[in-house]
């Protein structure tokens, strides 16, 4: 299967540059896996498609201000560092630009109380950087770091909180699990009031989710590892839902990666934690996830491939072409899709 098969035409003006004024008033395309059903609603109408027999699974990771600008201590060259994965208390795997100017042994100064030393070059040219600071790293990062928005968003939002889900809990992601950005406290409460369980998993979004696919054949692409956790109570609720014939509705592709990593061939989800490199594309047989809440994804992306695996490539690209015609908003701050 060729990566070029996941191409589609998207006018640049449909790439959302800012979130909808109200989170749950973004548009919602409802697509059915079986048959030709397709509906156009608002996101807040999602309650009409979920029943008390189902379970809604969210990813409660929190985006950190993971982009730092510093200068090489010896030359003063400006260096951009994107934190990807925490490897130890002081050491992070990072993406560095311009990488060719940052060999092992380089010291980068980000401020009076934060420096980093490059300790190794790892996969894909990423650098392991050991940071030196006073106090708590999170507090230093809050002061010096910037929210790492995707490159297709040209400016920081007026309210940085709009690039966090309202249920964000555990810091560690370099990008938001964007399907969850549409939920409001009122909407979640309405879902709970209907007797529908909402349970969390954790997957820290890293380079693996958004790294461009640079190969021609889909199967030659390798995912970057991302850390995940599934609490015991979450696994229990999901497995009981499956046993009684209810649906597991994943909010986002990150939640899907987490659940499919932890599910056996019998569909039973195991509690625990670890690292996942799962790559889901057409031909994959889903073990845990029955339905998906997701945004509209980039052409040729692994996210588009994952959603194609759930609903079919031709069917999905047909829906995307219709979304373009109807001027849906695309990507992180864009509209949503519910696949049932």
From TrEMBL:
One of its GO terms (molecular function) is S-adenosylmethionine:tRNA ribosyltransferase-isomerase activity. Its EC number is 2.4.99.17. The keyword Transferase applies. It comes from the Bacteria. GO terms for cellular component: cytoplasm. Transmembrane segments: none annotated. Pathway: tRNA modification; tRNA-queuosine biosynthesis. It catalyses: 7-aminomethyl-7-carbaguanosine(34) in tRNA + S-adenosyl-L-methionine = epoxyqueuosine(34) in tRNA + adenine + L-methionine + 2 H(+). Keywords: Cytoplasm, Glycosyltransferase, Queuosine biosynthesis, S-adenosyl-L-methionine, Transferase. InterPro entries: QueA (IPR003699), QueA_dom1 (IPR042118), QueA_dom2 (IPR042119), QueA_sf (IPR036100). It is found in: Cytoplasm. GO terms for biological process: tRNA queuosine(34) biosynthetic process. HAMAP family: QueA. Monomer. PANTHER family: S-ADENOSYLMETHIONINE:TRNA RIBOSYLTRANSFERASE-ISOMERASE. Transfers and isomerizes the ribose moiety from AdoMet to the 7-aminomethyl group of 7-deazaguanine (preQ1-tRNA) to give epoxyqueuosine (oQ-tRNA). Belongs to the QueA family. NCBIfam families: PRK00147.1, queA. This is S-adenosylmethionine:tRNA ribosyltransferase-isomerase. It comes from Sporotomaculum syntrophicum. The lineage of its organism: Bacteria, Bacillati, Bacillota, Clostridia, Eubacteriales. The gene is queA.
């Amino acid at each position: 299967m060729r990566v070029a098969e996941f191409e589609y035409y998207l006018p640049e003006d449909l790439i959302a540059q800012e979130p909808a004024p109200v989170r749950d008033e973004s548009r919602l395309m409802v697509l059915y896996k079986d048959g030709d059903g397709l509906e156009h609603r608002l996101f807040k109408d999602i309650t009409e498609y979920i029943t008390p027999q189902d379970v809604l699974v969210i990813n409660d990771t929190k985006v950190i201000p993971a982009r730092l600008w510093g200068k090489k201590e010896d030359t003063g060259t400006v260096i951009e560092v994107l934190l990807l994965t925490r490897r130890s208390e002081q050491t992070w795997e990072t993406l560095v630009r311009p990488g060719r100017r940052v060999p092992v042994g380089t010291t980068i100064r980000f401020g009076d109380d934060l420096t980093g030393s490059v300790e190794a070059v790892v996969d894909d040219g990423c650098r392991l950087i050991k940071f030196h600071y006073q106090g708590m790293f999170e507090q230093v990062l809050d002061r010096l770091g910037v929210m790492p928005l995707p490159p297709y968003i040209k400016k920081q939002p007026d309210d940085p909180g709009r690039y966090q889900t309202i249920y964000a809990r555990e810091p560690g992601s370099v990008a938001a699990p964007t399907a969850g950005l549409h939920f409001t406290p009122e909407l979640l409460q309405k879902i709970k009031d209907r007797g529908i369980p909402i349970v969390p998993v954790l997957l820290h979004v890293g380079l693996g989710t958004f790294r461009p696919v640079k190969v021609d054949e889909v199967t030659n692409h390798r995912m970057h590892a991302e850390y995940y956790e599934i609490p015991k109570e979450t696994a229990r609720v999901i497995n009981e839902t499956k046993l009684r014939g209810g649906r597991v509705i994943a909010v986002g592709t990150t939640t899907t990666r987490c659940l499919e990593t932890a599910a056996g061939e019998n569909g039973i989800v195991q509690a625990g934690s670890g690292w996942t490199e799962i790559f889901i594309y057409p031909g994959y047989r889903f073990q845990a996830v029955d339905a998906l809440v997701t945004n509209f994804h980039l052409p040729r992306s692994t996210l588009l491939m994952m959603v194609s695996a759930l609903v079919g490539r031709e069917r999905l690209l047909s829906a995307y072409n219709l979304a373009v015609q109807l001027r849906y908003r695309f990507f992180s701050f864009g509209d949503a899709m519910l696949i049932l």
